[in-house]
Design goal:
Number of helices of chain B: 5
Strand content of chain A: 5-15%
Largest sheet of chain A: 6 strands, antiparallel
Oligomer: heterodimer
Distance between the termini of chain B: 65 Å
Number of helices of chain A: 18
Mean pLDDT of chain B: 85
Distance between the termini of chain A: 50 Å
Radius of gyration of chain A: 27 Å
Low-confidence stretches of chain A: none
Order of helices and strands of chain A: HHHHHHHHHHHHHHHHHEEEEEEEEEEH
Shape of chain B: elongated
Low-confidence stretches of chain B: none
Helix content of chain B: 40-55%
Largest interface: A-B, 33 and 25 residues
Order of helices and strands of chain B: HEEEEEHEHEHEEH
Number of strands of chain B: 9
Number of strands of chain A: 10
Helix content of chain A: 55-70%
Mean pLDDT of chain A: 88
Strand content of chain B: 15-25%
Amino acid sequence: MIIEISHFLSVLATGLFFLAGSFSLFTKNTLYISNLISRTYSHGFLLLLTSFSIYIWLAISDNFSVQYIASHSNTELPTFYKISSIWSAHEGSMFLWIVFLSLWGFFFNISVKNDQILKSKSIGVISVILVGFLLFLLVTSNPFITILPIAPLNGADINPVLQDPALAIHPPTLYLGYVGFVIPFACAISFLLIGDSNIKWELLVRKWSIAAWAFLTIGITLGSWWAYYELGWGGYWFWDPVENIALMPWLAATAFIHSLSVSIKSSHLRIWTILLSISVFSLSLFGAFIVRSGIIDSVHSFANDPDRGLYLLGFISIIVFTSIYLFIFRLPTIKESKRIKKFSKESFISINNIFFGTLIFSVMLGVTYPLIYEFLFDQKISVGAPFYNAIFIPIVVLASFFLFFSVDSKWSRKINFKFFKTPIFLSLFFSIITVIYISDRFNSNNLAILISIFAGTIIIFRYIYELLDSLLNKKYINPFSVIAHMALGLLLVSISFNSLLSTERAINIKINEYEEYKGLNIYFDDIRVLKNSNNDSIKATFFIEDAKGKQFNLSPEKRRYFTRGQITTETAIHIMPLKDIYMTIGDQLDDGSWIVNIQINYLIRFIWFSAALMAFAGIMLIFSNRRA
Amino acid sequence: MKILLKLIVFIVPTSFIFMFFMLLTNDKSYPGADYTSFKLPSFKLENLENLDTISNDVLEGDFILNVWASWCITCIIEHPYLMSLTKNGIPVVGLNYKDDRDDAIIWLDKYGNPYNLILHDYKGTFALDLGVTGAPETFLINDGKVVAHYQGEVNEIIWQDVFLPVIKEMEMF
């Protein structure tokens, strides 16, 4: 009964969003109409939010007459996972996705005044997108379907790998990032709809875009962390198709917020900025399409249904082609300053746009090439790390050099390039020393890694100089830019060190035996079978002593869940400041020994830390008083 | 220059969308699937668990015949899906293929038994008659006749695309 109320409220919200969209796009937006649109939208949002809250309450109270809840939740689950079970499969996660989309629109709606010229049209664009996705939800993937008259008593279970705090918050954060770009997209579209080139739409969307970018950054980082310790993948990035699909909007968004700042400061690159804002949102939608149409096999795919894919493809095509049509139609009227001075900040950011464009295109190629190949030759192939490494390493290194030299650049002013200016000279000097030391200390002549370390260190040293300069000589710096770019330097250095130093080995070991690996003395103490509430598990205990005589235990586990029969590995990780000792247990061999995989992962926490630092810089900027 | 820009922003998405449309509407054909219908060859094998002799007349009605072995890695991956089939009331008969009885029983103890009945084909003769090339392979049997055959791991997608259409058409189970 209650579920019908929730269902009805969603349908009602769809109707209100439809009204808001039609008012906005098909009437002349007088102030009266603008107020009406704003209120209609807010009411639509409140209805949708109520509907979703009821749905959460139904999940918490184990209402298994709802088919979706019955097949993804369980009475035994803690409340936290009962809630997160909502986004553990297609229908519920789509519902959450839509609620977040409307949430961004709602915040935009209440924080921008009704007389702002772009507002009504933007709210209209958001409403139209909401209507499209709500219809998709209600028609092809309805989460409100009930099992009547007899509801099951216990419910099936949430997928065990999803019973994890990081994963419970990974999808919501990522979704907040993806759909957040609806704000710049909607504003760009309404800018094109109105067609008045004097409107400064860029300024309006600045903070919204950075907020969405920060969420996307955190969401991707959480996903990477989860894959490391819960999926037992043992690394931070695998070029899995769905990781790439999240990376593309991130790259586009990063290029977008840089390009945006240029457009705000000096009206350069406006066409780039519009194109990028359309790309970011289109790529986010593309991600939703890829994951939900089942066109690619990945850990993330939901159960597939071709109708869903076709609906999404159709709707996304409408959005993309309308945007492109508008863009082409208005292209002649967009006024932007044409000449960019050499070696000005604008020139560096326009080069950055080209670098990022190349990266996005390469990832797109990597993701779609197997699809094209399958389509043409009916065979499945996969594109893996070597392809991406070959493209990313040179471009990222090159981009870092440009970033390094751009620190000195000024807005709209040509700077004289003296290569032996103190800061440049000092940072190059220290970086070369560092790289030589590293090469010597770790006995490495892997050029790709050394150059990447060099690229990271010049950025870090350059910005350290900048920080000192600002502390000692009160020179003005942009703290957010400094933090974010230093985080980038740190990211490059930690990724390089990780691939330089990390090692792994599978060992066969029997109970009460010793094994030696990289100065670690491993003693297999015990293995036992445990009966947990919803799984059987094999838990091993190892005593480990490192070269310095420090002792610790590691207990990797293998679980078999009752309800789905799924087998999962629980990794055991010993965290040290600079490295992780990472252990998973495999199968038992005929002679009674066990296969144990042991990895030493260097600086892997620094990778996530630097990604988090970038997001933190973005969040600080939002809460600061700086206008742009 | 602007013409070029216009062309690029139009052509790139169009080609991607066209390709996705073709991929989505493309009828999936699976190289491992075979719909040749033939009568189940006659056999006399031991029940893996209690050594009773089993021949054609014991196996009646509709069922799934799954070829597996304890040495087969893919069978471990396939295993949870077979469990879910059994749980949903679909009779699954196992054909333990070229496998040691003790190994097979240890395997079943370790992972769980999804089979209603297991035939032990140590020499692989019955499998040869069926046209089995390796493990895992899965046959759909309708009243003593093989109506569908799949070489490789059966999962939700294969079940939906390869077996379910036949099951619906013949109104089985």
